[in-house]
Amino acid sequence: MQDTTIPHLRKQGNALQLIVDGKPFLILGGELHNSSASSMAYMAPIWERMLALNINTVLAPISWELLEPEEGMFDFTLVDALIQDARTHNLRLILLWFGSWKNGTSSYVPGWVKQDYHRFPRIPIRDGRSAEVLSTLAEANWQADAAAFAALMQHIRTVDNTHHTVIMIQVENEVGIQSDSRDRTPAANDAFAGQVPQELMEQLKEHQNELAPEVLQSWMAHGLKASGTWEETFGSGPDTDEFFMAWTYARYIDAVTLAGKNQYALPMFVNTWLRHPTNKMGDWLHGSSLPYVFDIWLAGAPHIDFLTPDIYVPNFSEWCERYTRRGNPLFIPEMFPDVSGARNIFYAIGQHNAIGTSPFAVDGIEQPETAPLSQTYASLKQLTPLILEHQGRNVTIGVLLDKNHSGFTWRTEQFELNITLDSTWRTTAENGYGLIIALSPDTFIGVGSGFGISFKPITPGPALAGLRSVDEGTYDAGKWLPGRRLNGDETDQGHKWRFSPLGISIQRCTVYRYE
Ligand code: DGJ
Questions:
Q1: Whose CA is nearest to atom 8 of ligand 1?
Q2: Contact 295 CB / ligand 1 (< 6 Å)
Q3: pLDDT at residue 255 tops 80
């Protein structure tokens, strides 16, 4: 049974929302550089910078090596200080468990694990060298990780189960094998030569109509077998190696996650290093929760609440789409912290009901008060109650336009909106970004920059649509405070609801029909 007094996930329409203190919460987050949270003195000036960025949630690592410097001896000093300092600054935390793997390697495991490589086996890769990567197939590895993670979650429950400063947990960081397609320890070779576990086969069968094409095609090409070895079922080659690795990572991480959830069941997720379009075999992390092995991860890690992408690659919108299959909610734990990230955030939230976003390395942003991220979050902070109220109800869209994708249409109850890059007789914007919410059939609220909207009726009645009123303004604690009435050049003489490229504005627009 889910404990609904602590942060948890809840459905609203077709969205999954994060509930904190009984209310939906939108994460306007930021992840710290990897080592920042290992020293509270180093962190001291950073907290104010987070506030200047209008961040409400800091994603901060907790490393196994510092938590359990000696086997069974836990040191919670850093965890306690982090939670305390976050509370002082009225910030929430997502804790990132740097356990067995970080970017595929095991650099954050304690020294006593690193040194005892007989007890805690690593993987040998193709050239025979041993890599500093713990094997997923060794029971001692996951048991040691799970014991430490359970101790962490037990401690968080003790110090935080009434405050809820910690709202979610990321389990491990960008797992997978680089430089080889699979683990080649004796235990891994045995498992690979054995049968595909029945739990996986049953899940694949149950979801056959919604599987990612890569798994489905390999399975179909080998006769859609109900059982068999990995190679009998999917063929031999790097794809099958990757399916196998995905399963073993998912099972390992699920065991760690369950041990933690048994102590304190916060929402937990894994993140993914995305495969760049130019990557060749061995360049990416084989077995990580990439879209084409999504279904294997969902089958293998039922205690993980959702899978997430770290988006540093082109085609932002496509990746968002690929991570919202099979009811997976979108949360982006890492993305660029610069102007491109600041634009993309609107799209993730507007188009995909994202639980939130968390650009990486936000403590390194210079001049946080004026940074693009600060401006994005300042506007989204104002709109948060409206965004959350309308999530999952199909009345919100995200806008992300550039010269290769300069427009699209959106049909609401009564109108078709034609949304294009803002253009005047003098210039056309290079980027358009924002989000729009249809508050009622004829009233819209929008935020963003560099795009314009014209309306066309799509239901019986007067055939033309006009702008009745357009106001820019702000929201203060959910209350609309109108500023300028926009007309004339600002609305292209009544033809377009425009968001000037000169900054981010929040505007409210009402539409009427005539003939
Ligand atoms: C992705 C990782 O998840 C982060 O921890 C960090 O290493 C960045 N890449 C690179 O800066």
A1: 360
A2: no
A3: yes
